[in-house]
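Suppose you are handed a protein chain with no further information: no name, no annotation, nothing but its sequence. What can you learn? This example shows the usual starting point.
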Amino acid sequence: MKNKILKPASALIIACAMVTQAIASETAVLINNVHVFDGKSSKRAEKTVNVLIVDHVIQSISAAALPVPENASLTLIDGEGRTLMPGLIDAHWHMMLVGQSLTDAMTSEVGYTNLRAAQVAEATLMRGFTSVRDMGGPVRGLRRAIEEGQYPGPRIFPSGAMISQTGGHGDFRLPHEIPRAPNDPLSHTEQTRTAAIADGSNEVLRRVREQLMLGATQVKLMAGGGVTSVYDPLDATQYTPEEIRTAVVAAENWGTYVTVHAYTSHAVKMSIEAGVKAIEHGQLVDEDTVKLMAAKGIWWSLQPFLDNEIANKQKGPSRVKQLMVAAGTDRAYALARKHNVKVAFGTDILFSGDNGEVQNARLASLERWYSPGEVLQIATGNNGALLALTGERNPYKKPLGVIEEGALADLLLVEGDPTADLALIKDPAKNFVVIIKNGQIYKNLLNP
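A reasonable first move is to predict its three-dimensional structure. Written in structure tokens, the prediction is:
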């Protein structure tokens, strides 16, 4: 059949119909009478305002009544003086590794891993965390399902596989798998793309490029010893400056950055000199290292690792290392404040066997060092700025972690004022009465 040529009038009618359909397909959410905590300061606004969301973006914020676009599908929410704040962000999360034990992570089938991770993802969103910076694991498939709307969950900024040297913090092989001959198959955690073992600059270059090929928004290297890993002491420095610099150049060529797992001054200084932009952990660094971080504008992704009731208690040698880190946590936060380092918040919950239920409590534990408003500003505006460090690899392009016109509509409506009473965030089921991600309402206790 030959293609028909539309007459001008017919083409105009179809074009008008398409425009009408596009206008009608807009969704709008109008939230009236709320005190806004914008993620950029440590206090919520005294005066109430109205906030209009159109599709996935905050379009208007005003004390005056806001008009809604004609033909938009409108949801109206009366905030009744509650607090509207940005969705929480966890800057050090492991979506694929939270719900499993360490043994499961080393042995379980990918199908089981994904099903457990999907449960974790939904629970994470329902706790008010609308974005996470995933610091290692095969999260690509789950992220796709969330982005397509197939399953509820937070935005995920994936790192892909954690890149580790032999015997480093990401080497989960068993002793009988050593040494590995050139023709030996990859270990289970490598096959599932949980970790990638790379020795020498050429191997590091290949593994970094592989993560970027598979959609990593940032790259994570293991530059020092870890608590849960079997072979490496906590004080071990991992990788050479040349290997780390190779990773940095490869990431920069893709418009993004490298962050490193490290606890000690030597590992952190070496990594900074090699060009990394962020440090994960760092509880054992000295003051000179913190001064260097401040001078270089390095992001410090700190976790409130304390030996308390919400710690994931380890056993044996790992318990000894865990207590060493806990002992350094108070000093790390004090030095970060003293030298005005850019601090991010993350929980780094691993192998908990549940859905990460202590996530909110770990955030609330920052009140040990900060005011409630400062805590929330770190977990929203600060973390949003860290996410934006991904530059050209940022898939969203608009601001996150803040309430401002033009920002993405990831929002929580909170019963009460969490900038005055941080304990409110520890019970999200009760106190987060509305949860919105990307302009879509995932929870609404006001209009069930």
